[in-house]
Structure prediction request, 201 residues.
Amino acid sequence: MAATPEQRREQLVDVFREARNCERCALSRSRTQVVFGAGNADADLMFVGEAPGAEEDRQGLPFVGRSGALLTAMLGDVGIARKDVFIANTLKCRPPANRDPAGSEIETCRPWLNEQIRLIEPRVVATLGNFATKLLTGDQTGITRVHGRPQVRELGGRRVFLLPLFHPAAALRASATADLLAADLATLPQLLQRPLPGAEA
Ligand code: URA
Prediction:
């Protein structure tokens, strides 16, 4: 029998309890704490960013710095409240000095993300930036070429729409990128209503 949302939420808390002691890679020695992810454990919409920055490492929460403020504001502009979505990252621990995630770190950390997607059961997974997009599409095509076009993928054992988006940090650096991110985010309300090909409604 399928698990209820409450059972899935409890299982997600169990995964969090395990993840917060993770020592599978060397980032465990430089982090302040694990940034597991946060939000609605039964969300239809899940965001996957890159890795925690300094503020996230300090607070233990994803996207609580400047990028997060922009993402929250842009979501509000399209009628989506941050509390209704779940936000996670490809890496659960901050890379020192905010360097890029290493491929080996992303692979080592991936089972946590797989578990999150499996238990949350989102209909849409929006990937923020190149690292999350390349990881979850399994394709090396860069974000500039794939942003804004939903792809049907199997993630966490279920079919989802994967929507590649520019990372809000890139939008903070260039207003043209901010405009593209805003336009892509504006497609989310309709995408959330769209039936997944071959999946139960
Ligand atoms: N950038 C990310 O990719 N993730 C965060 O949690 C914060 C900034």
In short: The chain has a mean pLDDT of 97. Residues 49-53, 56, 62-63, 65, 67-68, 89, 169 surround uracil (CB under 6 Å). The domain at 5-193 is CATH 3.40.470.10 (Uracil-DNA Glycosylase, subunit E). The radius of gyration is 16 Å.
